[in-house]
Amino acid sequence: MNIKNKLRVGIGFIFLMALISSGMADYYLTRLSNDSKAILKDNYRSLVYVKTIEQALDYPPKVNIAAKLQTIETNISKEEQNITEPGEEQLADSLRSNFEVYKLSVANPQITTQLSSKIRGILYNIMQLNMTAIEHRNTKATTTADQAIILVSLVGSLCFLIAFSFMVNFPGYIANPVKELISGIKEVANKNYNKRLVFPAKDEFGDLAVAFNQMAGKLNEYESSNIASVMFEKRRIETIINSMGDAIIGIDDRQFIIFANKVACSLIGVSEDKLTGQYAPNVALENDLLRNMLFVNQPKMKLFADNRDSFFTKDVLEVTNDDKVIGKVIILKNITDFQQLNDDKTAFIATISHELKTPLASIRMSVKLLEDARVGEVNNEQKQLIQNIDADTHRLLQITAELLDAAQVETGKINLHFGSTHPKNIVEYAVKAIRSLADQKQITININCADTLPNVMADLDKTTWVLINLLSNAIKYSPERATINLDVKKRHHFIEFAVKDQGRGIDEKYLARIFERYFRVPGAETDKTGTGLGLAIAKDFIEAQGGNIGVESEIGEGSRFHFNLNINNAL
After folding, report:
1. How many whole angstroms separate alpha carbon 117 and alpha carbon 111?
2. R_g over Cα of the chain
3. Judging by beta carbons within 10 Å of its beta carbon (0-12, 13-18, 19+), is residue 49 exposed, middle or buried?
4. Between residues 5 and 570, which one has the greater pLDDT?
5. What is the DSSP string of 69-86?
6. How far apart are the two ends of the chain, measured CA to CA in Å?
7. Which of 117, 215, 400, 485 might form a disulfide with 500, Cβ 3.0–4.6 angstroms?
8. Other CB atoms closer than 10 Å to residue 513's CB: what's the count?
9. Which residues touch 241 (CB under 8 Å, ≥6 apart)?
């Protein structure tokens, strides 16, 4: 039986008991009412008739005899019509016969006196008979009332006990399974998937318990398989991390170390069991390497490892979940071998460039002498060969100079000579240096540099070299008779130098790499004499002076290269 039917049966039973109780009460109240009505209707009226006849018999002799007889006649007739008790009819007949004689003997007082006494005796018997009936019916009504009180009390008490039991037990019947279900849900929410519910009743709660147990079982199976899968993935990732040659440390969002591979533990000098689960800033207080890894923004680090000076690069990877950072992974890559190769390469390039510079200068001087008519006349073919040799020599000298500058930057030995100078000085030196190159293509250079600009603190030679490089590139990439805008403006606390050309422009996908070493935009229409080092060296020169350099470009709109230098606030 389901809960709905149980509720119907329980409430119906209570309703039936209430109906029975009210029916019994109504039945006995009706009986009592009928008994009371019978007493009033029958016996009491007979007593009234008897009393009225007696009063009439007691009238004084002077009273109208006809009225007296009429009163007695009327009440005797009423009594004859109100016969209710056994024997009352005989008494009424006797009363009638004696009254008839009484009416005939009215003139004879002696006879009427005798008849009056006899009539009185009959009236007394009628009164006594009705009084006895009244007493009997009163006893009967009392008995009925007592029975009604007992039965109604019993039925009412039974209804009360049943209703009270229903009131006490039924809420528990509904609430206890619900409470147990809530407790089971909380256990499941706390990942106690072994929780089970037992409801013996075969109703909705029993079905609910079965469904809950099935759900908990499925969750337990899923959790077991999921935990096994997670543990497998954890061991697999730990194996991969420990097999890597790079030092790797994982930190959660609360700055606790959650893992560290063997290489990281070896570098830090702390065992894994003493490192994992520790609060990273506390460990960093006693470990310089970990402190540098956590709090020093230094992409390249030099450490003593493997019995030699080793070089490492630091990468910090953020771990996110729904755009929220939940931790980070710090990776130290050992680049000692690459650093050694790079140092050797830089030294080799510096040596070769330096060694080539002298013979190339000698060759160019010899070419100049060959072009001098005092040395001797040359024909047109020889003159063309000399011009080619001069152009190649110029290109080799330019490449050698750029390689020397690049080597100087890579070794960190950039010699800067800071001084306070007006931006206009830098502009004039640079424009003067490339004027002949611009005239060859009939290119106009519009200069916008106000005399009221403040001085900048910069290395004049390095900054002029950077501006010359930007102007040279603008001339190379601009068509003939084009216009190049050179704007120098004050922006906040620095001075910005900007060169805007009318060339083809640079594709957006190449803008991020434009300042990389040896990078050249694919398909660029140039004289192919560049090495791809100019912009990279320019970036190093500007950043070494505390400034920054950038580019803005769109295809068909030309390019705008700009760099800024700090204002000389000491003035």
Report:
1. 10
2. 64
3. buried
4. 5
5. HHHHHHHHHHHHT---ST
6. 99
7. 485
8. 10
9. 248, 259, 261
Name residue 445's beta-bridge partners: 484
Find out whether 566 and 493 touch, Cβ atoms under 8 Å: yes
Taking the C-alpha atoms of residue 52 and residue 72, their distance in angstroms, rounded to an integer, is: 8
Helix axes 204-243, 109-189, angle to 10 degrees: 10
What pLDDT sits at residue 78? Answer: 82
Per-residue three-class SS string for 199-210:
CCCCCHHHHHHH
Q: Which residue in this structure is represented by tokens 């337990």?
A: 220
* 128 residue type, one letter: Q
pLDDT (0 to 100) of residue 471: 92
H helices within 59-195, ranges in order?
Answer: 65-80, 88-104, 109-189
CA-CA distance, 491 to 567, in Å (whole number)? 10
H or E segment at 227?
helix 204-243
Task: Give the separation between CA 331 and CA 335, rounded to whole angstroms.
Answer: 12
Distance from chain centroid for Cα 534: 52
The Cα–Cα gap between 496 and 489 comes to 5
Packed helices 44-57 and 65-80: angle between N→C axes, nearest 10 degrees: 160
CA distance 196 to 181: 10
State pTM to two decimals.
Answer: 0.39
Alpha-carbon gap, residue 124 to 95, rounded angstroms:
11
DSSP assignments along 431-479, one per residue? HHHHHHHHHHTT-EEEEEE-TTSPPEEEEHHHHHHHHHHHHHHHHHHSP
CB atoms within 10 A of CB 267: 23
Q: Tell me how far apart the alpha carbons of residues 398 and 534 are, in angstroms, rounded to a whole number.
A: 10
* Contact present, 497 and 426 (Cβ < 8 Å): yes
Q: Which pLDDT value is given to residue 497?
A: 95
196 pLDDT tier (thresholds 50, 70, 90):
confident
- Classify the C-alpha dihedral 278-281-284-285 as positive or negative: negative
- C-alpha distances out from residue 326 to 250, 275, 280, 323, Å: 11, 19, 15, 9
How many other C-beta atoms can be found within 10 angstroms of the C-beta atom of residue 158? 13
DSSP 549: E
pLDDT at 492 over 90: no
Task: Compute the distance between CA of residue 73 and CA of residue 80 in angstroms, rounded to an integer.
Answer: 11
Distance of alpha carbon 487 from the chain centroid: 51
